[in-house]
Specification:
The chain has 1 helix and 13 strands. With about 160 residues, the protein is mainly β. The protein has a single domain, classed as Sandwich (Jelly Rolls), CATH 2.60.120. The longest helix has 12 residues.
Length: about 160
């Protein structure tokens, strides 16, 4: 039995890396009072050094069931390492349909959406990147918005 224990530990150590997910980075920011004002533009920083791989960039949005819209308009901006310039894009994020209701995952009255905004993205420079996310809906502040975030995954 004593010789079996080291073998078992070795098997566990070898197989654990295979259980990891493709997730490279994810961070969510709490929206104060669940009312997202246009002026509140969370900034999310992450370090990326692998410039040879392609990545998928997702917006992560969490809201209550009382959220009034089936979509979310955001402006996302990214700043590369060593740059002072921001590259921006506007995104209409589909959250619900009349047929299916909320498209994200939910528990009780809270729903989370991970929506792909930049597929197969190549980050050209190694170092610290910064994303800023702003809601650009007509309602200001945007009620029942709980969290906004960013997820970066290596593309398959």
């Amino acid at each position: 039995m004593k010789t079996f224990a080291p073998f078992f530990i070795l098997i566990v150590i070898i197989t654990l890396p295979g259980c990891s997910r493709n997730g490279v980075f994810e961070k969510d920011v709490v929206i104060p009072g669940y009312k997202w004002e246009t002026a509140f533009q969370p900034r999310i920083e992450f370090e990326l050094n692998d410039t040879t791989s392609a990545y998928n960039v997702f917006i992560v949005f969490r809201h209550t069931n009382a959220y009034n819209y089936n979509n979310l308009w955001v402006k996302a901006a990214v700043k590369e390492p060593g740059s002072t310039n921001w590259k921006t894009g506007q995104y209409d994020l589909l959250l619900a349909t009349n047929d299916k209701g909320w498209l994200g995952s939910g528990m009780d009255d809270i729903f989370e959406h991970r929506i792909l905004i930049q597929p197969q993205t190549k980050f050209r420079k190694p170092g610290k990147y910064e994303y800023a996310i702003q809601q650009i809906m007509r309602e200001d502040p945007l009620a029942h918005a709980m969290n906004i975030g960013l997820r970066i995954e290596k593309a398959p």
